[in-house]
Amino acid sequence: MANEIDWSNLPFGYVKTDYNVRCLYRDGKWGEIEVSDSENINIHMAATALHYGQEIFEGLKAFRGVDGKIRIFRMEENARRFRSSAEGLLMEPVPEDLFCRMCIQAVKLNERFIPPYGTGASLYIRPLEIGMTPRVGVKEADEYLFIVLVTPVGPYFKGGFRNTNLCITREYDRAAPRGTGRFKCGGNYAASLTAGKMAHDKGYSAVLYLDPKEKKYLDECGPANFYAIKDGKYITPASDSILPSITNMSLMTLAEDMGIPVERRHITIDELRDVSEAAACGTAAVCSPVGEIDDLDTGEKYIISRDGKPGPVTTEFYNRLSAIRSGEMEDTHGWITIVE
Ligand SMILES: *Cc1c(COP(=O)(O)O)cnc(C)c1O
What we know:
The protein is an alpha+beta fold. The chain has two domains: 2-153, D-amino Acid Aminotransferase, Chain A, domain 1, CATH 3.30.470; 164-326, D-amino Acid Aminotransferase, Chain A, domain 2 (Alpha-Beta Barrel). Helices cover 22% and strands 28% of the residues. Strands 1, 2, 3, 4, 5, 6, 7, 8 and 18 form a nine-stranded antiparallel β-sheet that branches. Strands 9, 10, 11, 12, 13, 14, 15, 16 and 17 form a nine-stranded mixed β-sheet that branches. Helix 2 packs across helix 3. The model has no long low-confidence stretch (mean pLDDT 96). Bound molecules: pyridoxal-5'-phosphate (PLP). Pyridoxal-5'-phosphate binds next to helix 5.
């Protein structure tokens, strides 16, 4: 069955695999890891996950390398961020080693779904944690389920690596100042669906959100961080209402490797006039280059790419990070876990 998958034409969607792994936190401790072949979970209808949004997740990928080995990119960082998200929503943190062990186990159990090298496809790993305790009064759960599921996903850039456009609007925020923006929780995504649909309906790939307090600075896209290249520097927003993207963190390191100075700071909308490149970055795409950013409220159009092609820095980032993930370029920063 898995041999019949058309790897290069896989969508970014859910494909059933053989197994998922689960662990339940109950009576003050994490239990045994369970391997399940069911796609369903049994959950109380009054569980806190369903009523009060106690749900967090992660997204990372495993790749089949040029040498046939399986590589997972920066898993420990995802484990750390998952812990921070749990703390942010008053959920039980999953120990980082348990997180990593379960990700590796889920990958191994579904090895036949790891797309072959060279297809651009990968095995997406989706850890999630939910509050299981039935509550009517608002209070955190004391039982939690941690699940790692995996699904093969196709190459992000089906039509080739090319620019898309973003829009700015003051009509919507995805997160509040001092809210949950820096945690990876489903609630932030629910809060961004309306704006995301509006953007898609108007032909944009995403909304570039402004900081929710002053509406003066750039924040991030719905599911991805934002950076630009300005005066030969890598600039990316410093904000505590955005999710600390591991891809962004990696690109900052690659920029330094490439001799490009990095600035994490407030970026005003006006500065978009003077940037030579801009992109959204995250696990799904690595970086998705931006052609134009339209401010829907003022009618201002910021043309980022004059020739309509992805810029040289973004193209180099994409090539380098892809090459590290597939084992074609040496992993000098210790980002890769080889699954044996
Ligand atoms: C997951 C996510 C990102 C990207 O993070 P990566 O670790 O690079 O995949 C960016 N913004 C938001 C809101 C996210 O949920």
